[in-house]
């Protein structure tokens, strides 16, 4: 009677001989797939069925992953807006450098955003710019009072509200109008491919960063130097917008492209000049001390000559 070791040896020997005769055979050496006689089950075939099963499993896995990606949270939930702030410090700094150093042929959206626009950078850039505008505007009056005692300084807290409303409305409403116009022009010129609304807002938000150091430099009490710093900041910021929008508007007619870019630069210039004239006016109305004025007396108010002569004798 054969022992268990001998039976196992004969089983492996049979399987080896069968594999030598048919090299394409596939063995299923699992304990739960033993034949009733205790022999190993050997499946003879090309093995293509197993490869097909693997491909089916891979395709099903890919389909499941795509379905998970498509299941985005609703816009009224916190998770929907969380992805807009999913950036790290290195990405934000890279986008700030890209906005400070615009050059032709270097698209800010393609080279820096890379289909991942964020709202973190634009939000804090606008908040910082509004705060610095209000603070430096008050510091300008305080420093002017030390040079001219006739200026009576009082804190102007309303400038904070004005700065916040101005900066955030510009950084949101202007990109919204621009995006809507480009979407409308896409229906006229089918080759145009406008940026998304989030990309447009992101471009405008980062373009305002250059005004933050410029506003601090406006504390220097030299008018021509202030205007020079403002012109340089405006040139850098507007150039970044033009170079970013040019790949989109160049598919349109020359007139439409020229008008659109001119309006973009003009609105940017109005923002810079408005901030300079409103927040950095040295002598605002109502903060000047009234100057002594000479009053002319009417003849009826003059003293009589007799009183004048009597006063002269004393």
Structural write-up:
It comes from Galeopterus variegatus. Residues 100-272 form the Yip1 domain. InterPro entries: Yip1_dom, Yip5/YIPF1/YIPF2. It is a single chain. The termini are far apart. The radius of gyration is 39 Å and the shape is elongated. α6 (120-147) runs parallel beside α9 (211-217), α9 (211-217) packs antiparallel against α10 (223-249) and α10 packs antiparallel against α11 (254-279). The protein has 314 residues and is mainly α. It has 12 helices and 2 strands, in the order αββααααααααααα. Residues 29-53, 284-299 and 307-314 have low confidence and may be disordered. It has a two-stranded antiparallel ribbon. Helix content is 65%, strand content 1%. The chain has 3 domains: 1-44, no CATH class; 51-76; 86-279, no CATH class.
């Amino acid at each position: 009677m054969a022992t268990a070791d001998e039976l196992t040896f004969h089983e492996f020997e049979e399987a080896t001989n069968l594999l030598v005769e048919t090299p394409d055979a596939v063995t299923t050496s699992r304990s739960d797939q033993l034949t009733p006689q205790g022999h190993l089950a050997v499946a003879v075939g090309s093995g293509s069925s197993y490869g097909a099963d693997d491909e089916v499993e891979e395709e099903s896995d890919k389909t499941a992953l795509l379905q998970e990606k498509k299941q985005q949270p609703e816009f009224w939930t916190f998770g929907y807006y969380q992805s807009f702030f999913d950036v790290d410090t290195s990405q934000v700094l890279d986008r700030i450098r890209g906005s400070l150093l615009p050059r032709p042929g270097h698209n800010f959206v393609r080279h820096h955003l890379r289909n991942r626009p964020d709202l973190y950078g634009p939000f804090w850039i606008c908040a910082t710019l509004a705060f610095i505008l209000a603070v430096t505007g008050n510091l300008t009056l305080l420093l002017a009072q030390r040079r001219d005692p006739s200026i009576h300084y009082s804190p102007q807290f309303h400038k904070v509200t004005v700065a916040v409303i101005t900066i955030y409305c510009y950084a949101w409403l202007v990109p919204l109008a621009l995006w809507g116009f480009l979407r409308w022009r896409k229906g006229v010129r089918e080759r145009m491919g406008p940026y998304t609304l989030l990309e447009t807002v992101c471009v405008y938000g980062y373009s305002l960063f250059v005004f933050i150091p410029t506003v601090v430099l406006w504390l220097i009490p030299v008018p021509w130097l202030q205007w020079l710093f403002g012109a340089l900041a405006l040139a850098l910021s507007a150039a970044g917008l033009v170079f970013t929008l040019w790949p989109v508007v160049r598919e349109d007619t020359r007139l439409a492209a020229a008008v659109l870019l001119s309006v973009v630069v003009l609105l940017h210039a109005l923002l810079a000049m408005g901030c300079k004239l409103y927040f950095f006016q040295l002598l605002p109305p109502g903060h000047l001390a009234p100057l002594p004025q000479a009053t002319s007396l009417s003849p009826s108010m003059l003293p009589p000559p007799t009183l004048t002569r009597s006063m002269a004798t004393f």
